[in-house]
From TrEMBL:
Annotated stretches, region: Disordered: 20-72
Xref: Gene3D superfamilies: 3.30.70.60
Gene name in the database record: LOC102750675
Protein name (Swiss-Prot/TrEMBL): Elongation factor 1-delta
Residue span(s) of domain Translation elongation factor EF1B beta/delta subunit guanine nucleotide exchange: 98-184
């Protein structure tokens, strides 16, 4: 058994060296294998390698059973389902992304007319902008800031645009800060 294995290894080494010489990608020399006698008897292999003819037969077997007729039927079914999905999606209402913003509008001093300031801010009318409730919050030294809520559609009104529009009232508004921002 050991002699058979040694002969098989020798034949494989000879075959490998022939393959390495013929292949341009494997120009490097492979290290030689040492012949070592085993300490115990090796069991003979249970079965020899399958001949190449069996491998070719495996390739010819279609494991998934695809036929031309079934492919046409599957394509027709897929097209019908895609059409139904498109119809269903067209009927669905479009969801508009909205955000709720709480703005802090700060006046220049304690003599600023806060009612006039709020009227100026609410006079800003943009497509996708809805003004909500407001309140005056004390800051210190008799100065109060206007805290006003608004809801904006994200694709129509940006926070930068809103801040620019409010700060255009320079005689009343010192600065504008976003106190809270949340998606609806």
């Amino acid at each position: 058994v050991v002699q058979d294995l040694q002969q098989a290894v020798s034949r494989l080494e000879a075959r490998l060296s022939v393959l390495e010489k013929s292949s341009p990608a494997h120009r490097a020399t492979a290290p030689q294998t040492q012949h070592v006698s085993p300490m115990r008897q090796a069991e003979p292999p249970a079965r020899k390698a399958a001949p190449a003819a069996e491998d070719d037969e495996d390739d010819a077997i279609d494991l998934f059973g695809s036929d031309e007729e079934e492919d046409k039927e599957a394509a027709r079914l897929r097209e019908e389902r895609l059409r139904q999905y498109a119809e269903k999606k067209a009927k669905k209402p479009v969801l508009v992304a909205k955000s709720s913003i709480l703005l802090d509008v700060k006046p220049w001093d304690d003599e600023t007319d806060m009612a006039k300031l709020e009227a100026c801010v609410r006079s800003i009318q943009l497509d996708g902008l809805t003004w909500g409730g407001s309140k005056l919050v004390p800051v210190g030294y008799g100065i109060r800031k206007l805290q006003i809520q608004c809801v904006v559609e994200d694709d129509k009104v940006g926070t930068d645009l809103l801040e620019e529009e409010i700060t255009k009232f320079e005689e009343h508004v010192q600065s504008v800060d976003i106190a809270a921002f949340s998606k609806i």
